[in-house]
Fold Response regulatory domain-containing protein.
Amino acid sequence: MALPLSSTTQQKVRPKIMVVEDCDTERCLLTSLLDSMGYQTLAFSDAKDALCTLKQSHIDMVITDWMMPEISGIDLCKTIKSMTHPPYTILLTGNNQNSHLIEGIEAGADDFVTKPFNVGVLKVRVLAGLRIVEMQQALAQQNSQLNALLSKEQQYLKDLQQDLASAAQLQRALLPKNADLTNGWQVTTRFKPAQELAGDIFQCFNIDSQHIGFYLLDVSGHGTAASMLSFTLAQQLSSSQKAWQQHDLSGLVNKVNRKFEDPEQCGRFATLLIGIANTHTAEIELISAGHPAPIVVGPLGTYFIDNNQLKSQLPIGISKVHQYQSQIYQLEDNCELLLYSDGLYECRHSKYGFYGQDKLLKNIHNAKSLPANRLLHYLSYSAELWQEKQAQDDISLMLISSTKVDNRHKELQ
């Protein structure tokens, strides 16, 4: 048994048709015919009154005679078509010559019916016209809905962009500034994220009057997901952790590794180079968790710290039971230690392939006489050019100097 329709059920609105005809007989005939078809009708004997109504009310269709006093049907069609949302217009004409019909269509009429008209033909033309009107209205409604969704989406994207910009600003605020450290040591940095948010994060700070701590962390991938994980890991590596004051580098890294989480289960991991430097002896305790080997920049040469001097261990997040062990490296006088992320040398040129570590080492050697900030700018810019200014990965650089060297840190004239 069918349920009765609710009184609140929306009824389909009957199309509203305007008849403009100066002949009383034909106007009554047209009105009666349209009423019998179930349409709402408005009848006018002249175009002037019709136009006043058109400007104030929504009309779906206008049926107008061609020959009328004062304002003709042709002039009425021209005025109608100049409206923002013109109704569908059928022009009644007693002349069926092609030139006459072309003139009517060019004036703005959508269709025409010759007089005297056949009732069946007029019905068909009205039905066809209202189908077009209905499709236009449906399309307009869909466009309105799409525009509303688009506006909502644009606002969402705008809000998201603002959130990303704020997060990027916060991320940059966490990075160390170029600064003097204890006992004349210095740190100089450069950071070029591939997107607004990066998976790289690094830090360098005084632990006490004799020691400094530093690390460079690179979470696999880049963008929002990688940056969120890097934020989490940075908190666990912050200078407030007691392990820094206790000089317990292995304990700190093992704890970070045990707490590492990959909520997306997408095989994410992080490489880490972390160390504590004794600013009196230039002795550096280091742990490399799958990170690119640091580079020593000195007056007599530029070279990687090799695997015998610093054994590379598993990246963070690969195995929770892995036990990280630190190693001691002696930094020579007037030498600097360069930490960097793999985005610096793994960038690829469309024609010449990978940038590579050999090219990186060569470029550092050739430019090592530059002041520290200009050296890092030169390295990041050369990588940017190599990848044809299309960022492929985050680039982080941190140069830690054991002492001031006049010819390196004096600005070029």
Summary: The longest strand covers residues 211-219.
